[in-house]
Amino acid sequence: MADRFGTHHLEYGDGVVVKRYTSWDRGEPHREWAALTLLAEHAPGLAPAPVEAALDANPPVIVMSRLPGRVLRGVHATDEQIRALATVFNQLRHAIPTRVVEAAAPAPWGPATAVDKVRAWADKRPDLGENPLVRQAFRTGAAWLATAAPDRLTANPLPPVFGLADGNHANVLWDDHERRVRLVDWEDSGRSDRAFELGEISEHISRLDGALDAERLLAHIDLAPGEVERVRDFRRLIALVWFLQLGPDGPATPRNPAGTLERQAARVLHLFG
């Protein structure tokens, strides 16, 4: 399944992980250290604990606690694991004071960026091949992007949350001993929109590598009035983000097995159905 290109190397020690960045032009080390520090204060145990950092070294280095568990990418998530993940999303909403979240830097990947990017890709009419299902998915998505619905997603009527801004299921660790979920890889994190975060975890392309039932996850989230529709539309948006990258010349194509575009087209049509 598609994933970001590697931005770091990990070394595992006695109870710690040493993360050495191979690229940091977007401020990843500073962002991750700020996130780990904030979470250690307000939601301890949800993420690795910060130990030490050399943020201005070449390369930058962060040392953090080593968490037990296995990733939920590539597996069939059980209802217990899905409930535990929902608990984390609820914790991120309630454990960190709004004033603290509002003072945090915004995540670089968020609603406005996603809307602008997916519209730009759609306007270029990328080569998605001749499959009728794929072509139908493009027409359906492009028609929705031409409406005002995506624009409404860029203004959050609810308090912001602190989030990963990355729905890769490889960032979700399941601890068999404590029967809980923790989150790793906070280098793209920041102030975010919870509906966007839920759209990311529901529709990231890593969902095709294993099974994490988004409907069951959302059923365990304490969604606010009006948030249901926003989550639905963010799921559509994120699904289109991946769909438009999967054509024959798309940036996500080389790292995905044959048939991924068709499967994603079916997902897009399902979400708009």
Defining key terms:
alpha+beta, four-stranded antiparallel β-sheet, Aminoglycoside 3'-phosphotransferase, Chain: A, domain 2, about 270 residues, three-stranded antiparallel β-sheet, Kinase-like_dom_sf, AGP_Transferase
Label the overall shape: globular
**How would you state the average pLDDT, rounded?**
94
The CATH C-level name is Alpha Beta
What is the assigned CATH homologous superfamily? Aminoglycoside phosphotransferase (APH), C-terminal lobe
Unreliably modeled segments: 1-5
Terminal CA distance reads: 25 Å
Radius of gyration: 18 Å
Number of strands: 9
CATH architectural group: Alpha-Beta Complex
DSSP strand content:
5-15%
Helix-and-strand structural type: alpha+beta
**What is CATH's topology name?**
Aminoglycoside 3'-phosphotransferase, Chain: A, domain 2
| Number of helices, where a helix is a run of at least 4 consecutive DSSP H or I residues | 10
Largest sheet: 4 strands, antiparallel
Task: Specify the oligomeric state.
Answer: single chain
Listing every helix as H and every strand as E from the N terminus to the C terminus, the arrangement reads: EEHEEEHHHHHEEEEHHHH
Overall tally of domains:
1
Q: What is the topology, as strand order, of the major beta sheet?
A: 1-2-4-3
State the helicity in percent bands.
Answer: 40-55%
Domain Aminoglycoside phosphotransferase: 16-219
Pfam families: APH
Organism: Nonomuraea helvata
Protein name: Phosphotransferase family protein
Characterise the protein shown here.
The N terminus is likely disordered. The chain has a four-stranded antiparallel beta sheet, covered by helices on one side. It has a three-stranded antiparallel beta sheet with strand order 5-7-8. With 273 residues, it is an alpha+beta fold. It is globular and about 55 Å long. The protein is built from ten helices and nine strands. Helix 4 packs across helix 5 and helix 4 packs across helix 9. Strand 3 and strand 4 form a beta hairpin.
